[in-house]
Structures are given as structure tokens and as C-alpha cells.
Amino acid sequence: MRQAIEQYRAKIDANPLLTVEGAIFVQTDENIPLQVCRAIANYIGGDGQDIALTQNTTTGLALLYHGLPLREGDEILTTTHDHYVHHESIRLATGRCGATWRKIPLFDSYDSISPDEIAERIRKTIGPKTRAVGVTWVHSSSGVRLPIARIAETLAEVNRSRDEKDRVLLIVDGVHGLGVEDPKITALGCDAFAAGTHKWLFGPRGTGFVWAKPAVWQRMRPVIPSFSSPDLFAAWEEEHEPAPAARAAWFSPGGFQAFEHFWALPQAIRFHQNIGSARITARIHELNAQMKEGLAGMSRVQLYTPRDENLSAGMVCFDVKGTKPEAVVERLLAQRMVASTTPYRLSYVPSRAVSLTRRRKSRRCFEPFVNWRKPEKTSRAIMRLQSGACSQRRRYRVSAVNASMNSRGVSALSNLDRIVSSFTSRANVPTQTR
Rg of the chain's alpha carbons, rounded to an integer? Predict the structure, then answer.
């Protein structure tokens, strides 16, 4: 993939006019964006004509929600577990037309998550004005993987008694499931799916896509000028509205971009396909099960991610009681394990799990979490961390991402002990780094 990026970059640098025009404006098999859409379609089990190319999940969600033909009084339903960009995309879209939105919890405890209960909670909350339900396939705040197919079945039942214009659409943020689970996302039953490709798919930075059913694209309105459809240029030149109905190509943002990254995306897809999606899924779940088993046996660690592999994917989330995640990040980095912290709003955490105090008004009730690759090594580090006490009452949730697919990612849990003990023996351990 890197080689493909460099080759395309060299061509663009040598002659940007001919290279870009020949690649994106000629409507033949030489059209590279069409080739990219076909590669994605082959991977997810769809049709290339139903795919819009975007820069990331954020852009994809914004295009979807702003493209919906919402009217005053319409409602979008989402969950308390979703990411900031999902909530903001909905808030900004509904705020422009007088529509409303609501957030609901899908479960009360991480110890008793049920696919049927999740689907039933959504069904009971849908009202006559609900036009879309927005969910996330895999929550980066907890590692929970939602039963998308079960939710889709429930919405299909709701829609049987509705007119086509009043159907409830199921919109999915799928970035932390794509590249981990079965890639045939068109079989999940959702109406629209947005994801970046730079995470688990290992695609080039700044690349992503939106897939939606043709009927969904047809009812939507583009919000950014596109270079991907000659119909739009023809309508502009002839000074009339584009002939309905809209389709996916109308939604791919135009403008001069990092074309070499988009054009190299098929290489990343072929890399996954050559390994085999089933093998990748099995390996990631194996690593995750090993991590969860190790963490579950530690008395001062609170594991949130379900042990059931049907309710989890490639992430693990937990608390180390009395220890800040920033400290975990620092110690893991010292062991050559790259980690990071990300904020989430704690509106659904069981009281026994996390107790938050205010740091700043603008940062209130956020949970950082840690990402890494080596489950055994890191679990041993957490084992040592759990024995340390923090003088402040503040606690956080920590999340581990098992992104490694090779055997080196399964080194022993033993190193965790060494890292945690270093916390208990040092009086000057930093309690806050942000």
C-alpha cells in the first residue's frame, strides 16, 4: 500500500493536471474512484454504485444526517453510548430544520447485556415522528459490540406499518467493526453504514466511505459539491437542477484531496482479503479473549467489555481502581507499548464502576481510555497497577485495543506485574498528566 501511495504521488507531482483529470473525470474503467468503490464493494458485499468516498467516519456521518430530508417535528433517536462526532452530526443536522433528537441507554449494567433487550429498548422508544436510529457497531468507550442484525430486524417490524416516507432508517457508525468482524456489512440489515478505513483495515490515512441502500441515497440531499458524477457537471453547465434521483456518487466530496491515499486503498483491502477475513476475525477474538480472561481474574480491575465474543470485537475496556489512565499510558509507553487517552461522557456507567469529580467545567464527566497491542504483556502491567492506591477519589475507565495480528502480540502476561509493581514502589507517581 505504501508503495502504491508513493507511485501515485510521483505521478501527481510530475503532472497533476493530466494525472488527476485522467483518473477522476474520465468515465471509463480507467476512472480510479470507480475502481476504489468497486474494491470496497467487493469487500463489503455490495455494489460500487452504492458507495460514496469520504475522508473519515466523521465526514460520513455528517453527510448522512445532513442529507436526510428532515422536517420540523421529525426526530432522530440515538444512544448515550455513542461518540461525540455521532452526537454532533445529529445535533447539527436536526438544529437546522426544527427536528429533535434523543439519547437512550441500551443497557443498565455491563454484566447483563442482552441483544433482545437492546432491540426491545429501541423499539419501545421509537415514536411516530422518529425517522432514523443512529447506533455504533462497536463502542470505543466500552468495547461492546451491538447486535446490528437484531436491531435491523426490529426496525423492519416497525416499518411494516409505515409509509415509505416515514420509514425509520438504521444508520451505523461501523469504524471499529470494519476490518475485525465479517466484512459483509450489507448483510447486517442496516440502511446506511459509515466508516473510516485507517483503523482496523489499515487503510491510508484520510480515507473512508459511506454505503447506503439505493432507496436511501435517492431520498437524500447532497451537502458538498462532488466531482464524482458527470450528471452534476452537465446540470450546472446547462443551468438546471440535476435530474432525480440522487445516488451515492453525488455525495463523495469534491475538491483537490490527497488522491494518492484514496487511490491506494484497494491495496489495503487486498491485503486483508489475501489473509482471509475469517482468519483475521478469529485471531483478533482470540487475543481479546486472552486479554479479558487475564483482566477478569484481577481483584482490583473492573472489566466492562462482555466476555461473550458475540457482544465484543477488538477492544477491551476496564477500570484499574485507584489508578489514573494517564499513569497507565506513561508506564506502557516505557515498555514500548503505544497508548492514548480519549474522552467520553459518563452518562451510563454503573455507580460502582466509576466515580468522577470535576476537573474543569469544559472537561466534566469524561473518561479516558488506553489503546495497545499486546494483551498478555499489558495485562500483567495492569496486575501491578491494581495494587497501587490513588489519593484522589477520581477513577476512569481504561480500554485496550488488540490490533496486532501476529504472534509477537501474544507475549507473556508476566510483564504486567513488573509495570504495576513500579507504581506501588514509587512515591512520585504522577496522578494527573493532562
Answer: 23
Yes or no: say if 383 and 422 are a contact pair by the CB < 8 Å rule.
Answer: no
pLDDT in tens, 144-180: 999 999 999 999 999 999 999 899 999 999 999 999 9
**Residue 432, in any domain of the structure:** no
Higher pLDDT, 372 or 240: 240
Nearest to 268 by CA among 280, 286, 284: 280
Last residue of one domain, picked from the residues 275, 294, 312: 275
From 227, 236, 222, 231, select the one nearest 257 (Cα to Cα). Answer: 227
Name, in order, each residue with C-beta under 8 angstroms of 92's C-beta and a sequence gap of 6 or more.
62, 65, 66
Q: How far apart are CA 207 and CA 83, in angstroms?
A: 19
325-380 pLDDT, tens digit each: 777 778 778 888 766 665 675 422 222 222 222 232 222 222 333 344 455 666 66
Q: Residue 368: what pLDDT?
A: 32
For residue 239, what is the domain's CATH number?
3.40.640.10
**Domain span at 291:** 277-424
Structural domain count, the chain: 2
| Confidence band for 48, pLDDT divided at 50, 70 and 90 | very high
pTM as predicted: 0.83
Can you give the CATH number for the domain in which 318 is found? 3.90.1150
Same domain, 164 and 309: no
What residue has cell string 438504521?
Answer: 170
Q: Is 243 contained in some domain?
A: yes
Q: Which of 254, 275, 296 is the last residue of a domain?
A: 275
